[in-house]
Amino acid sequence: MFKNIVKNLEPSSTLKINEISKELERSGKKIYKFGFGQSPFAIPSNVVEALKKNASHNMYLPMQGLCELREAIAKFVSAKKNYEYKSENVIIGPGTKELMFLLQILFDGDVLLPAPSWVSYYPQAILSRNQTHWVQTESENNWFPSAQEIEKIILKNKDKNYLLFLNSPNNPSGQVCDNLEEISLVVKKYNLLVLSDEIYSELSFEDNFKSISNFCPEKTIISDGLSKWCAAGGWRLGHFIIPNNLNHLRDKLKVLASETFSSVSAPIQYAAITAYNSDQSEYLKKAKNILKAVGEYVYENLKSNNVIINKPKGGFYLMPEFLNKKFSNSSEMCDDILKSTGVALLPGSDFGFLPHKMIARLSFTDFDGTKFMNNLEKDTKIDFKLISNFAPKIVEGTKKLKDWSESI
């Protein structure tokens, strides 16, 4: 039975669209890669130098992760959350995806997923044999669940354990959760476990980013890593912050780690110490300045009577809804967009929306972020000219998408 489930799983849609886009490019077709979400910037130079310097480290490191790295992360997160975490609260993994999967395997209960959710939460729940409940959301609430919607599901069976996934800033919507305090009341009332996926938190466009952990730290596992803010997705280094009262989960995760990935690459862990201990504020300021400007350009030029869309608040995604009845589902719509315009998008059905909703995820990262950043002076206001010069495919792809929306 389980092997049949595995056999029937499809490849991750985000990775699949990346492969499709590359294949179409190799065939000579001009593709606007708005489907795959990956930082367009280079890794900070001092972090790259640290990797070079530590390339000779060839020993297996502790299952939980290098102590010096865990201490650096604990200090970094404690300062941001105004809550004291220690190195023992941190576990290092080969990206957060693997740690989330191991957590789902360990968790004994049901999983609550807001619609929309990142594409891998649900398949991991299937593989872990966890029952999943989709929590409906609305654009008026930034595509995050209300406390009432969460409670409505729990009240059907209060005796179960529940694991709630919250991802803010959100993939796929690019929105930030504003109702964390009311959600935290439900978390405390029903003793929920929360996985707070904060992989885009350092790319929030506002400076006052809040986490659910600010309201119920003892019930929250924080998930983060180098992939997005440090532009090091290919390095595959992520971490969990697990509060003291959930040490039983941390210890079980260590056991599973010992039987799956053993430990994360030693040179990368040593290099990551530099990422967390050094001041990356100027790098992040420029990155956020660029992403905000490019995201708002797409938003302003795509929204219309034919396209409903929320203004981006962090990360590098937008989630347009196309008001048409020509297609039977969002996958069919995205296939037509790719064929007609060369713009690659992901259908909303991959993120938990009902297939008939004509929603898609748009990643506005198809540009050379290093070149853009190197030509940006401190505190420069980014205008259309700069976007046109350094993100031309964003401009072209957005126009093609808008023209398509007006023609259907």
What's the Cα radius of gyration?
A: 21 Å
- Return the CATH class of the largest domain: Alpha Beta
CATH architectural category of the largest domain:
3-Layer(aba) Sandwich
Instruction: Compute the number of strand runs.
Output: 14
Placed side by side, the strands forming the largest sheet appear as 2-8-7-6-5-3-4
* The named CATH superfamily of the largest domain: Type I PLP-dependent aspartate aminotransferase-like (Major domain)
Largest sheet descriptor: 7 strands, mixed
Instruction: Quickly count the domains.
Output: 2
Summarize model confidence as the mean pLDDT: 93
Indicate the proportion of strand residues. Answer: 5-15%
Explain the overall architecture:
The protein is an alpha/beta fold and 408 residues long. It has 2 domains: 2-43 and 281-407, Alpha-Beta Complex (Aspartate Aminotransferase, domain 1), CATH 3.90.1150; 56-277, 3-Layer(aba) Sandwich (Aspartate Aminotransferase, domain 2). Helices cover 41% and strands 13% of the residues. It contains 15 helices and 14 strands. It has a 7-stranded mixed β-sheet with strand order 2-8-7-6-5-3-4, with helices on both faces. Strands 10-14-13 form a 3-stranded antiparallel β-sheet. Helix 5 crosses helix 6 (121-127).
Strand and helix layout:
Blueprint (H helix, E strand, L loop, with lengths): L1 H7 L4 H14 L5 E2 L11 H9 L13 H15 L8 E4 L2 H11 L3 E6 L5 H7 L4 E5 L10 H8 L7 E6 L12 H10 L3 E5 L22 E6 L12 E4 L5 H13 L6 H12 L3 H22 L4 E2 L8 E2 L2 E2 L7 H12 L1 E2 L1 E2 L12 E4 L5 H6 L9 H7 L1 H16 L1
Parallel strand pairs: 1-12, 3-4, 3-5, 5-6, 6-7
Antiparallel strand pairs: 2-8, 7-8, 9-11, 10-14, 13-14
Helix pairs in contact: 3-10, 4-10, 5-6, 5-9, 11-15, 14-15
